Amino acid sequence: MARTWLRVGGVATALVLLIAGCIGDNGGGGGPASDATATGPIKIWYSNNAEEVTWGKAMVTAWNKDHPAEQVTGEEIPAGKSSEEVIGASITAGNTPCLIFNTSPAAVPQFEKQGGLVALDTFPDGASYIQARTGDRADQYKSTDGKFYQMPWKTNPVMIFYNKTVFAKAGLPTDNPPLTTYADFLATAKTLVAKGGVQAAIWPSPTSDFYQPWFDFYPLFIAQTGGKQLVEGGVPQFDGPDGLAVADFWKSLYEQKLVPNEAYQGDSFADQKAAMAIVGPWAIAVYGTKIEWGAVPVPTKDGMAPGDIHTFSDEKSIGMYSSCTNLGTAWSFLKFTTSKDSDGQLLTLTGQMPMRTDLTATYPDYFTAHPEYTAFADQASRTVEVPNVPNSVEMWQTFRDAYSASVIFSKTPVDEAFKTAADEIKTMVSGN
Amino acid sequence: MTIAATGRPSGHRDRMRSLFGRDPIGYAFIAPYVLFLGGLFAYPLLVALYISFFDYFFAAPGAQVDRPFVGLSNYTAVLSDSVFQRSMLNVAEFIVINVPLTVLLSLVLAAALNAKLPFRAFFRVAYYIPYVTASVAVIGVWLWLFSRDGLINGVLGPLAPSPSWLVSDVLAMPIIALVVTWKQLGFYVILYLAALQNIPRELYEAAEVDGAGVVRKFMSITIPGVSSVTTLVVILATIVGANLFTEPYLLTGGGGPNGASMSPVLLMYQQGIEQGHAGYAAAIGVVLAIIVMTISAINRFVLEKD
Fold it and tell me: Which neighbouring-strand residues pair with A151?
C-alpha cells in the first residue's frame, strides 16, 4: 500500500515538474512582432451588430480593391459572454487578429499586462496621428507608461433619453422637462411613477457586473465633478462630497421605489415600463420610430448649463494585437478606417460618434440632415473615459460591490462603503 | 516445461506479468479512458495546483511577463477574503436545502414511478426533461415565475414578499436551491429507479404476509434496499451544489442581491476570467476541491456505516 502511494506521489511530482516546464516557459517562439514595416495579409474582427458589420464589410472591400498584396479578412468577433472575455482567451491562445474594432478601454490594462497589445507609438506617426484626430481627449487613452495601446475610435456619449408620451400622460412638459437638478429629477420621477403609467422612472440594471456603474453612477459623477475620472493620479475621487451626493441621489430613487432594485428582463424603455433610460446615440436608431423621445444631459446636484456638462464616453477603441506579423499593413489599414471619409461612413451607418475633434463642423451635411444627433455630437466633445489604471476590472468590481451594498440594497451607509472601497482601490490601482 | 528449461523466457514473462498482470491487453482497452481522464481532468487539476502558488495570469505566447512564485499567499488571501467566506456560507445553505430535498423527492418519485401507474412512461420522461434542457432556457421560466411582477407574486397578491424573491438576501439562495433541485431531480430519479428494480419482489410479498403497510414496507425494505444509491446521490448532489454557477449567475444577476447568492465558482470566474487573477482563482478551486472531497468522504463514511 505504502509503495503504491509512493508511486502515485512520484508520478504526481513528475507531472507537476512537467507542467512547470510547459507553462513556465515564456521565452518560446511566436512572441510579439517587432517589425513595424512588415506588410502582407491580415485579419481583423469587428463588432457583430448589423450596422457595424455593414461598415466593417464596406471598409474591407474598399481596402482590398486597392491592395491586392495586403488583403484584409474581416470577421465578426466570436460570440461569447463579452468581447473582453473572447479577446482575453484569444490573447492566451495566440490567435488574435491584427486589429479588433471593439476593444473596451477598461480591458486595455489587462490585455497590455498579458502582453497582448502593440503600442501604437511603435509607428513613427502613431502618437501624432491619434492626437491630431482626437485632440486633448486622446490623453485619457494613454497607459501608465505614457504609450497608446489603443486607438480611440468611436463614442456613444450617454444622456438621459425620455419618453415624451409618458411625460405628457403624467402632465409634465415634453420639451425641456425638469430634469436638470437632483431635486427636479426626483420630483419628476415621482410624478412619472404616480401618473405616467410606468413601473419605474428609470431602470438601470442593478446587477453586480463590474461595468454597470458606467450607466448609473459614473455619468452623473462625471457631470457633478465637471469631468473627473473615478480615480485620478492614483487617488480615488468618488468618496468625496460630489461622489456621495450622486450616490445619495440614486439611493433616494431606490428607497422611494422610483427605480426597482430587480433587473428587468428585456428593454424596460422599449417596453415602456420605464420613462427614461441612460443611453448613447445608438438608441436613436433603436427607439427612433417606436417611441417619441427626447434627450437631455444627465442631471447635476444644483443644475448646470448643458454646454458645461461632461458625461461618460462609452467609447470603444481599436486594438492592435501582438500576434500580428504584418504590422505595417495593420497600421495602414487602421489609418484607412479612421480617415475622415471612413469616420463619415461610420457616422452615417451606425449613428455612433467617431472620436474626432469638432464633429459637427467636419460632417455638416450629416448633422443638417439628422438634427436629432446634434445634441449627442455636442456632448461627444465633453466625454470622460474610465481610468487607464492597473487592475481596472477589479477596481470597478470593488466599486460596484460597495455601490450595491450601500445604494441599491441599503445594507451599509454610503460614506462607510465608499471609504472602504476607496482604500482598497487605492492599493489596487497602484499595481500591488 | 520447455520454457522452464530454457530459463530466460520464463523470467521475462514473469517480469512482464508482474508489471502488467496476466492480461496486458486490458491496458489497451482502458487506455482511451485513461488518456481522456488524464488530459481533461488530471492535467488541468495539476495545472491549477501549480498556478495557485504563483501570482499567475494568462499571457500571450512568448510574452515576457513576470509571474512570481508567491508560496501560500494566494491561499491565505482566499481564506481571509470575506467574499469567499460569504460564498462558502451561501453554498453551505444551498447544500443544506438542496441535498435532503433531492434525496427525499427523488426517492419518493422513483417509488411512485416504479409502481404500476397509468402513463408511467410519460411521467418518467417528464421528470427527466428539465435535466436535459439547457439551464439558460429553464432559468428564463423561473425568472418569469419569481420576478417582482412574476406569476408567483401575481397569485400571492398582497402576501408577496418584500423585497421580492430574487432580490431578498433571505430568499434568493433557497429559491436557487429549489431551482437546482427541480432541474437535477430527473437524473436522481433514474438512479433510484434502477436501484428499486433490483429489490426482490419477494421481500415486499413477505412483508405483506407479515402485515406490513405501505409506510412500513417503504421504511424497512425500500430505504435499506437503495442505501448504496442514496450514498451516491448525496455525494453527487453535494458536488453539483459546490460547483454552483449558472443559477446565481443568471437568476440573481451575478450572485446578488449584494452577494447573498455568490458561490465560490462564480467568484472563481470573476477573479480568474474577468479580473485576470488566475492564481487566486486556482487557489479558490483547490480549497473548494479539498472541502468537497472531505464532505464527500464524511458522507460516505456516515451513510455506509450501517
Answer: A318
Domain that holds residue A138: 42-155+315-384
CA torsion B269→B275→B277→B283, rounded to 10°?
A: -30
pLDDT of A23 > 70? The answer is: no
C-alpha distance from A309 to closest chain B C-alpha (Å):
32
A102 and A233 inside one domain: no
| Grid cell at residue B39 | 488530459
End-to-end CA distance of chain A: 46
Q: The pTM is what?
A: 0.85
Q: Which residues of B touch A (CB under 8 A)?
A: 42-43, 46-47, 49-51, 57-65, 83, 140, 143-144, 147-149, 163-164, 166-167, 169, 253-259, 270, 273-277
A93 shares its domain with A183: no
SS3 label, residue A281: coil
Task: Please give the biggest Cα pair distance in chain B.
Answer: 95
Could you give the CA distance from residue A31 to residue A115 in angstroms, rounded to a whole number? Answer: 9
In a domain, A2, yes or no: no
The answer to whether residues A231 and A387 touch, using CB atoms and an 8 Å cutoff, is yes
Return the residue of A nearest to B172 by Cα: A262
Instruction: Identify the CATH number of the domain defined by range B73-303.
Output: 1.10.3720.10
Tell me: do A147 and A266 sit in the same domain: no
CB contact under 8 A, B258 and A411: yes
Q: Is the bond leading into B257 cis (omega within 30 degrees of zero)?
A: yes
In a domain, A114, yes or no: yes
d(CA B63, CA B54): 17
In contact, A237 and A229? CB cutoff 8 Å: yes
Angle between helices B227-242 and B278-304 (to 10 degrees): 160
In tens, the pLDDT along A229-253 reads: 999 999 999 999 999 999 999 999 9
- The distance between the two most distant Cα atoms of chain A, rounded to a whole number of Å, is 85
Q: Which long-range contacts (CB under 8 A, 24 or more apart) does A78-84 make?
A: A78/A45, A79/A48, A83/A47, A84/A110, A84/B274
**ipTM associated with this complex:** 0.81
> What tens digit of pLDDT does each residue of A116-166 get?
999 999 999 999 999 999 999 999 999 989 999 999 999 999 999 999 999
For residues B246 and B252, is the Cβ–Cβ distance under 8 A? no
Q: What pLDDT, on the 0 to 100 scale, is given for residue A27?
A: 36
Give A368→chain B minimum CA distance, Å. 42
Residue A301 CB-density burial (10 A; 0-12 exposed, 13-18 middle, 19+ buried) = middle
Per-residue DSSP letter, A132: H
Q: Decide if A383 contacts A228 (C-beta within 8 A).
A: no
